[in-house]
Amino acid sequence: MRHSLNYALVLAGLVAGFVSVPVKAHIFTHDFGVFDGSTGATATILSGVSGNYGWIDGTDADWGDTHKLSVYQFTLTGAADVQLSFEQAVALGGRNGLNPGFSLYSGLVHDPASPGGPDHDFSAGSIFIRDTDSGGAVTEGAFRALHDWRITNESDPAVVPPSVLTYIGHAYDGSQDYGTGVIPGGDGLLDHKVTQTFHLAAGDYTVFAGGSDYASQLAAVKSLGVSGTLSVISAVPEPETYAMLLAGLGLVGALTRQRNTAGKPRE
After folding, report:
1. In what residue span(s) does the Ice-binding protein C-terminal domain sit (predicted)?
2. CB 10 within 8 A of CB 127
3. Which of 107, 162, 169, 221 could pair with 152 as two cysteines, CB 3.0-4.6 Å apart?
């Protein structure tokens, strides 16, 4: 259903109780934790997603609904190469068959304890943002798998700025083409798991993960288990470290040249 009301009218409707807000669409994140870039640090979280198409739905022109995804966040206090992996978790609900996909963004969504509560697609502010950013086009939700996007909570956007999620990259299980060309980022192997490594600076990050089987929208699957893992596979030296390394290599080179010159017989 297209939301064409302007922000003021929708907000008035919420206050008057004329507009209902689906509680299930609120974004509650799973926290991988804080990492200082130390190699070998890892964290795994079991979660669930509604259906097997939440991620892939965010790749098309009418965007997607965030309540069909599982959302993770983490913080890096130092630059690092981070590996993200998502796979089906049969133990959760006894279901399997998830074809996972995920997108990584810099930035965080609002904390549930913040003024206005957690973000969700159908808050008055989010509807206004969607109508603005889409140019008035029909949108199913706020989620965009391959682009930057914004979302907010029940607070007044003039008081509490919306969450801004800046796209970094994505990956998904297998390869999908729904008639408009192969969606980039597939790993080419449909085995119910996907892994990708990112070179990241220090900062806050959010990951949205869900199913990549768009054809399953009509399937009667209510929930699928997903296991998400973050691993720091290598630390990235700070610029000062690179400078010291280059200075050291230069010194070694100079000493080598000096020794070679000293060892040559005079003509």
Report:
1. 235-259
2. yes
3. 162
**Can you give the pTM of this predicted structure?**
0.81
The H-assigned helical ranges of the chain are 7-16, 124-133, 239-263
- At residue 223, the pLDDT reads 84
CA dist 27 and 210 (Å) reads 14
Q: Are 109 and 153 in contact (CB under 8 A)?
A: no
Alpha-carbon distance 233 to 259, whole Å?
39
242: helix, strand or coil: helix
Report CA-CA distances (Å) from 121 to 5, 87, 99: 15, 26, 24
Spans of all domains in the chain: 7-236
Q: For residue 260, what are its two tokens?
A: 């070679």
CATH 2.60.40.10 for domain 7-236, yes or no, is no
Express each pLDDT in 212-247 by its tens digit. 998 887 676 678 999 999 999 998 775 554 444 445
Which of these, 116, 190, 121, lies nearest to 157 by C-alpha position?
Answer: 116
Output the CA–CA distances (angstroms, integers) from residue 103 to 92, 161, 227, 258, in the order listed.
Answer: 22, 22, 15, 53
CA 104 to chain centre: 3
pLDDT in tens, 97-107: 899 999 999 99
Q: pLDDT digits over 141-164, tens only?
A: 999 999 999 999 999 888 899 999
DSSP character string of 147-183: S-EEE--SS-TTTSPPEEEEEEEEEESS--BSSS-BP
User: How much is the CA Rg of the chain, to the nearest whole Å?
Assistant: 23
CB atoms within 10 A of CB 44: 12
Two tokens at 170?
Answer: 């994505």
- Mean of per-residue pLDDT scores for the chain: 83
Other C-beta atoms closer than 10 Å to the C-beta of 40 total 9
